[in-house]
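Quick start: load a record and inspect it. Here is LicD/FKTN/FKRP nucleotidyltransferase domain-containing protein:
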Amino acid sequence: MPFTCSDIIKIIFAIILPPLGVFLERGCSSSFFLNIILTILGYIPGIIHAFPIIHSDDDLYPIPNLPYDKLTSVDKILYKLNEVTINKDGKYWLGHTELTDYEIEINVSEFLQENWVGQNLLFYDPRFTLSIYLSEIKNQYQQGNKEVVLPFSWSDWVDLTKLNEELAKPESQRKGCAYLKQTHHIPTKIKNYCIDNNQITDSDLKEMKLPNTNYVPGFAIRQSPTNKASNEVRMLEGKSHLLTYAKNPYSIIWLNKNGGTYEVKIDEKQKIVDSEMFNNYLKNNKIKPNQEKIVLNPVKEFRELLSAIKPKVSESDEFGMIEKLKSPNPTESRELFIPESAFNYQQDKIDSQIKEYDIRMAKLKDLTTNELNFDLSTIEQLKFTRNEKLYYESLKYANRFPLKKEQTYFRMARLNFGNEENDHDAGWHYEWRFFNGALRYLKTGWSNDELLIREKVLLDRILRNWFRFANEKGIISWIAHGPLLSWYWDGLLFPFDEDIDIQMPIEQLINFSKNYNQTLVIEDITEGFGKYFIECSTFIHHRGKSYKENHIDARFIDIDTGSYIDITGIGLSNEEAPERYNELIIQNESESKLPQVYNCRYPHFYSYEEIIPLRFTMMGGVPLYVPNQIETILKQEYVKGLTSYDYEGFYFIDKLNLWIHYSKIEFLFKKEDYLIDNNVNVEKFTSLVQNITNDDIVRILENDEDILLEYYLTKQVTDLHKIELTHMFNLPNGKDSRICDIHGMKSQQDISSNIEYHKLTSQFNFQKPFRRSLFNYEMIDRPRHHKH
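Running the structure step on this input writes:
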């Protein structure tokens, strides 16, 4: 088998890296050593000269064999990037995002079912959970089960071990509801939202699926109290709810980066250690219960599942998105032309669905309560899945409420702020059940820089896994609001924005809810251990303005943190459209058409032409869609968004294609050039930033490892984004243009008829993750590399 370029590089490094210490001892600089490596590689054809659009981590940029101080500024920049490539395990470990440390060693006896009788403390490690579930799924498939059904407990999937501090105490000494309520900013209006252990009945325990009150931490949470509380109390409330009253998901979907999914149904509430799954694992792997220790490896289990059972490929592709994305033709457009009907979901469709479901339910009732009509084959045809039943109930329930009488559906982890513990985070960006601490709340043992890295990790991963799921299932969606504006600048998420907003046609939202509400989505195990819960509002059937904070129709929730993607449906409604659409509405009426102006429930308004065709692109190494008239949409929502180089102390640097905080770049300039009365003059500082040179970039990269790492991780995709912009917008100097020099967007016809544009977008696919997986970063990497 022929060696690849990366194979050859690894062989050469294995030969020439050991003498590094000798070179350094003899006074040779590390730059001299790096240049020797690059020179050797430069003589091997194709290794560093024939780059694809996105090259691998092992590729090195070609630079002359000169001492560092003799290099040009451009070559110095490439030299710094090569340093990160070579330095995988040293100070640049964050620049290498492959999954590591995915094995866990356990004592077998500690997880035997009989040894957990009476044990109320909680254990959590996703490597344990994923290994056991994947093994069980594989074996159920191999036994010929058409449908895999498994038990489930939130404590196996979410870290609830914070409750162990209370569970370890005698019940009489545990914190109770009074402890939680004392941090609430106002008394809750939710009666009995919290129940003390001594108030819990046998009926409550039956609902919780817990043997007795010793398994409850002192307080059982029925639902969100809806008021504000401290960071600690909000975590305790969410975790107690998951342990006690929270309902299970209906199903779990396992993503596979090479296509297809594995899907299982969830049945009863039961922890792994209380079920037969661990014993099954031992039996299927020929491990004796008296064996002392074993190593669990979820990556190995996932690969064995892939080898044994072919993943399920989606059969639904209503608008041909999956077919387009998989097309081998490089000149074929990946644009999506969705019909106007996809945005039309009104009361007549609600009424017809309710009528159809009512008839079906009545037939089922007659078939199962009248022995003369009993017929198994007809029952099989008419039966409801749990998702269908939930959808049917939401239809009928939502139909009872006018817009102004709706009940608020989603609840956030509202926090007390403006205090020493928390200066600004109001908790609006976290789902209350899965809240695991505010993103920028300084936790013991953490630095501010580490918190910012954690935030980037979870936002990048949640975006990645939403579009991995949506693209696999043929679910049409596109980025909106802040992420769309951020895409325009550099094809990345803003470093100062905690929101990710997704839109979809209302008909897609309805089908999405019908099929996937209450589903847990698992990241491809070879990339990380991310877990995401899909929750759809009962009131998705309403399209008018929300008066009860129901602006959001669905959420894709990271269950490790409570962070989420907001999903909103776009469709026709009776809301009055802004004046800018008057001419279009008059034209539609003259053609006897419905007005093709749509809105979300905020409401933001869009015309059909502003959205369609959807354009295929990439953001942060993730293939996704953006709407058609990007400039028009963004100018309506953000007056200065396309031109302002500053936001809350961050400045955009064209030569890096990154937003950088001014505190990290002010050293480049003389203070008298940007300070007025000892304050930063934004206009002057912006002018300096817009004229940064390559020499300045070298100084930045030499001065700040964090910026160097971010540039290393993002350079290829941001460079590619700039090339993409040349096909979509008017850039006077091509890909070397500054963002401030862009002169408007090209016409739809110009973009859609551009073969070179289609060739470019045909190469867009999922890149390696930009960040380490969240579990690895929080539990392994950060403690390992923490600077005391």
